[in-house]
Design goal:
Elements (H helix, E strand, L loop, with lengths): L1 H8 L16 H9 L8 H21 L14 H13 L7 H10 L8 E3 L2 H11 L3 E5 L13 E5 L2 H18 L8 E5 L5 E10 L3 E8 L4 H4 L2 E4 L5 H9 L3 H5 L10 H17 L3 E11 L4 E3 L2 E5 L23 E4 L5 E6 L5 H9 L3 H8 L5 H4 L2 H8 L6 E11 L2 E12 L5 E8 L8 H15 L4 E6 L4 H9 L3 E5 L4 E7 L16
Parallel strand pairs: 15-16
Antiparallel strand pairs: 1-4, 2-3, 2-4, 5-6, 5-8, 6-7, 8-9, 8-10, 11-12, 12-13, 13-14, 14-15, 16-18, 17-18
């Protein structure tokens, strides 16, 4: 039997064996081991190892999926978020009200239910009439975040009298359970009935910094404990992987006659939330509970935000375990001809646009960039572009130049890369510009920005290798102050720029395309 299994092991599929019988099986096990087939003393051990192998393969597969591009994500309104946080800090508060919390969510493109603050009964009645019955009244407080604990939530109010009674009930309950001074009026919002309640939150871990949570929400969130954790920042692939770890995800896909929720939109909302957590380090805790998810809509019904004390400086704030997208290197640029471009770091979602970009390159441009022929099929292969578009920003930063384009949307017209050389303070640059956009100053501007990125990343020396026939790139380097030197052994010209005094790091060889 063991010898017959040897041929199975040569078929390209993993083969695991379990020959029970102790020393009586030693000859068979020796045959398996000699042919690279692992053998386990018990079947359950083999099954467990096979599961680990499957999980590893699945993780790799999801890692190399192309994330969805969030076309509606135009970025937050920074002044709105800054003003909201500053107002709380100026009054010595670390707890935001529900209305303030929803302002921050809305600024990041997270849909919220319309919420009106009412300081007295008459204002609550007017708000309910404007929104339409039935409505929900909830405590508005600058100190209390868990409103249900103090009787601060009343649902399904269908009349003016019910609103007035609920207002008085909330005020009386809060005064009795929390004491005077905690009641700041109420918030009024429409009663939303259909949908699944999920929770989307973040808190700070002492080791990992901000940690995201997704799972079943509502009042019983701590009873059912159906949740999964993830580290920001996320893209849509990682967001979907986070959601799939929960039991509520099966219901969100559709069950017992209910249609599936818009899972792509939900993944985008999780990504936007992750971006909020990364870009607002003064937020210590943030919860959306519940986030109501239905087949027609996704909307935050309640939210709470707790800030770090003002005494903690920005330098002392916890940082994400994974370096986030380097948004600080993004910016607009207008050419001398008046054309407007956006220059920003590359993202995993850029893979489809990178395919179009490579299709726009002539044979000459490919030769100048890669020092030889590199087929289009190889350049646009999914496995390669996944590495090109998604990497560790501590190791490599690529800037893309984006043109507004036409009715087909934005397109990438140039790419510049700065690759950190291991165990040195040096980095290598490489630039390629689409033929239709050459001689417009894009190469010069890209290289200028790459030098600024190098300075910000504490790089002391930038080097690049250029073909002698690439006179355009040589002129760009001269214009920006690079020193040029012919390298005799490979017929290339080395361009070097010292960003600071350096003792001369190790000589490095050109990085060839993979």
């Amino acid at each position: 039997i063991a010898r017959s299994m040897v041929t199975l092991g040569n078929g390209g599929k993993p083969v695991l064996a379990s020959f029970m019988g102790g020393t009586g099986m030693k000859d068979a096990i020796a045959v398996l081991n000699a042919n690279g087939i692992p053998s386990f003393p018990y079947p359950d051990s083999a099954a467990r190892i096979f599961e680990y192998m499957w999980q590893y393969s699945r993780n790799l597969q999801t890692l190399y999926e192309t994330p969805l591009l969030d076309e509606e994500d135009s970025g937050p309104a920074p002044e709105v978020v800054a003003t909201t946080l500053r107002q709380a800090s100026d009054t010595g508060r670390t707890v935001l009200t529900e209305a303030e919390s929803k302002i921050i969510l809305h600024a990041y493109g997270i849909p919220v239910v319309e919420t009106i603050v009412a300081l007295d009964e008459d204002l609550a009645v007017a708000a309910a009439a404007r929104l339409g019955f039935p409505v929900v009244l909830k405590l508005n407080s600058e100190t209390i975040t868990h409103k249900t604990d103090v009787g601060g939530v009343v649902l399904n109010l269908a009349s003016v009298d019910a609103v007035r009674e609920a207002f008085q009930s909330i005020r009386t309950s809060v005064d009795a359970k929390a004491g005077p001074g905690h009641f700041g009026g109420v918030t009024v919002q429409r009663m939303m009935r259909r949908g699944y309640e999920v929770i989307l939150g973040s808190s700070v871990d002492a080791q990992f910094g901000p940690v995201l949570l997704f799972g079943l929400g509502g009042e019983l969130v701590e009873v059912f404990r159906d949740s999964a954790l993830g580290l920001p920042p996320l893209n849509t692939t990682l967001a979907r992987q986070l959601m799939e770890q929960t039991k509520i995800y099966a219901a969100l896909k559709g069950v017992r006659g209910h249609k599936s929720a818009d899972l792509n939109l939900l993944a985008r909302i999780v990504v936007r939330f992750s971006r909020l957590v990364v870009e607002q380090p003064r937020i210590r805790e943030i919860d959306i509970n519940p986030l109501l998810v239905s087949e027609h809509d996704i909307r935050a019904l309640d939210a709470r935000v707790i800030l770090h004390p003002a005494a903690i400086s920005d330098e002392q704030l916890p940082r994400p375990a994974i370096r986030p997208y380097p948004l600080q290197y993004s910016g607009d640029w207008i050419s001398s001809a008046g054309d407007r471009f956006q220059i920003r770091p590359i993202r995993p979602e850029d893979e489809p646009r990178m395919v179009t970009f490579h299709e726009s390159l002539s044979d000459r441009s490919v030769h100048m960039r890669y020092f030889g022929g590199l087929s289009l099929q190889h350049r646009v292969a999914h496995a390669r572009l996944t590495r090109v578009c998604g990497f560790d920003y501590d190791v490599e930063i690529a800037l893309v130049v984006e043109h507004p384009g036409n009715e087909q949307g934005k397109r990438i017209v140039a790419v510049g890369r700065l690759i950190r050389i291991p165990e040195s303070d040096s980095a290598e640059f490489a630039i390629v510009v689409s033929d239709a956009f050459q001689r417009k100053g894009l190469g010069t501007e890209l290289l200028r920005r790459l030098t600024k990125v190098g300075e910000a990343e504490n790089t002391r020396k930038i080097q690049g290798w250029i073909l002698p026939s690439n006179t355009e790139m040589l002129n760009v380097c001269k214009e920006l102050g690079f020193q040029l030197k012919t390298v005799a052994d490979n017929d290339l010209i080395q361009a070097t720029l010292l960003l600071a005094d350096t003792k001369g790091g190790p000589e490095i060889s050109p990085i060839r395309p993979s």
